[in-house]
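Format notes (please read before filing issues)

Several people have asked whether sequences and structure tokens are stored in separate files. They are not. Every record keeps both together, in the order shown below: the sequence lines, then the token lines. Line labels are part of the format and must not be stripped during preprocessing.
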Amino acid sequence: MRVGLLTEGGYPYVSGDARLWCDRLVRGLGQHEFDIYALSRSERQEDEGWLELPPHVARVRTAPLWTAEDDGVSLGRRARRRFDECYGELAAVLCAGDGRTAGDGPLSETASAGPSEASAAVSADVADRFANALYGLADLAREEGGLVAALRSERAVRALERACRAPGALRTAREARVPELLTVAAHLERALRPLSLDWYEDDALGSVDLCHATAGGTAALPGLLARHFAGVPLLVTEYGVQLRTHYLASADAPPAVRALLAAFHGRLAAEIYRRATLITPGNTHTRRWQERCGADRTKLRTVYPGMEASRFAEVGEAPEGADQDTLVWVGRIEPAKDLISLLHAFAEIRKEEPGTRLRIVGTPSGAEGDAYLGHCRALAAQLFPDEAEGVHAVGDNPVSFEEIGSPEAPTLAEAYASGTVTVLSSVVEGFPVGLVEAMFCGRATVSTDVGAVVEVIGGTGLVVPPRNPRALAEACVTLLRDPERRERLGAAARARALELFTVEQNIAAFHGIYLEIVSHSPVRHVVLDDAGAPRPFAAPAEAHVPGRWTGPAARVVARGGPRWAAGAPVRATIPSPTTEAAR
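Then the structure lines:
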């Protein structure tokens, strides 16, 4: 099959999010053809170039999110009127909140149905209004050749201002000042840039069998539009919740900006979940977020991230080489990792086990990470003055700060191998990659109860509350004093990681999901062989059968012909033996 892989700020670029996971997925599914549609986040990312792509990647199309040149499109009077209507309706939905305030229009009209029925009716109405406005803008962008200039125009800001000042608008929205309106309008323009792309024609996303969005939010928007224009089924994978990321990013913004942007990203997430054929969260923590945002439970399939286990095999198979008195922390150095609590916990550990050492291995993330690392170094020097074994020996601090590639930690596996217990002290965590790496290495772990930690550990390590140095210290001391328990937990952790979190299980899961989606999707093209004759079994037979499960794609059927004859004929590619075996 032909898969359109949708990414934002990652693959195929050499830096960014999820690039390794996407690369492993594409390489592992060599029996399928991939088209990559990538949104870049910065000029630096584009200058760094791409990863080496496998031969079954047929094409790569990219577009920048960090900038957008004026498309030169000047809307006529009728088009301007349509833009005002659609953008105004979009803004009105954002300013109206969830409509649950008594007397604010829709809720009062449905109150006689009871609270739960009224709330459901209002939510459905708001979702439909948002969808109609979004697809109305998409249709206009396709007809006019883009909406970059219109979304940046004063008309857009005025429409947003009218919506904020309208009766029934949220109090927070009514208090928005002009600078805040400009900020919101600029953010909406950036988020809606995919509407102006030329990716949705029959020779682009319209020709793929399946769109696979590797994240929610803006990354999934092209897939949403491909479904709208061409009926292409959409698969959405989230290993981190985009909506949560936006909430955290706007935490310090003015209340009006925070409320309006939260409403936009919440409505967009709900629409993506509503229209997606299947949704694959990376863990239960993400799944709970998706369900709260309106995702149908019947569409959800949990697929854990696949990680390369082979590079940790040597350490995992010989765990006895670790220093029995050393704790190891590995990760990206930033405030969310709460190394301050770890250092205070280590001070308590040293009171019980004076010979213990702590190795902190990682690199800071940006300027904030550099500042945080400096603060951690200063605290370590204050808590642990250099120690010496005798009056003539050179002092040494029991806490060391290192980076992967240094003489002390040449590789990631050797960093984990240097300690007998691996510690995770985060206050915010999505899927704990470092924890899984420690499990591959057969290490006992002590972790804070955040994100998907409990789900990943599954009883093979100790878990304590976040921001609790004393509990963290007690758990570490418990394992330091019990070598047999450490060995049992490490062996169980390695077995669990090899069962659930390998690249092989991830690829097998997505291979099955791809086949499931395509087998339940109506055929949109007649497939011809080299002689020009139709290939009757090029698409699953059940796709010809009408029924409820064929879904909204029936709307794209050409009049006067059967469902399977919709769209222009396309030439078949010669299938590989692997594909034939799967079929």
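For reference, the curators noted about this record: The two ends are 11 Å apart (CA to CA). The first helix runs from residue 19 to 28.
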